[in-house]
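Below is a concrete protein record.
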Amino acid sequence: MTLRDFFDWVQQNPSFLWIYFLGIPALAFLAGVFAKDEAYLSPWKNLYSFLIYAVTIPGIFAVTLNVYFFFFERRSIMDSDLLIQVFPILSMIFTLWLIRRQVDLDYIPGFDKLSGLAMIIGIILTMMWVLDRTHIYSISFMPFPVVLLLIVAAVLLVRFFTKKLVS
């Protein structure tokens, strides 16, 4: 099954996606109602962590997919599939807003890993876009593994400086 096959299947069976991306904010709301002032304690913060991961991974994928479609394929915004490209992002934003109202995200285990993942994906996409725009495709005097090491070093260097900037 290719990604295109999966997107076609989702378009033919949208109820699974609707249930998933409406169910997660509903669960976050219910957890907030039942947890009240204990949202930072162990069983609730683990549930919040699960909900954040369950909605953020597809949301980050949808953002990445949108960036790819609009910047690399130069697709029109009028050709966007709302169910696959917009709805996961809206569900992610709404779920994070609901959870943030209930508990400080510093108490959620693994939340810093997700922001790091989003930052690394953003850095790599930016580097790929710059390489695509400048048409620098080959560095003839260097072997390809050295070029890959330079790209990884650049990502780690940018990540290091953004951590220093934030903290």
Summary: The mean pLDDT is 83. The helical segments are 3-12, 14-35, 42-72, 82-102, 111-134, 144-166. The first helix runs from residue 3 to 12.
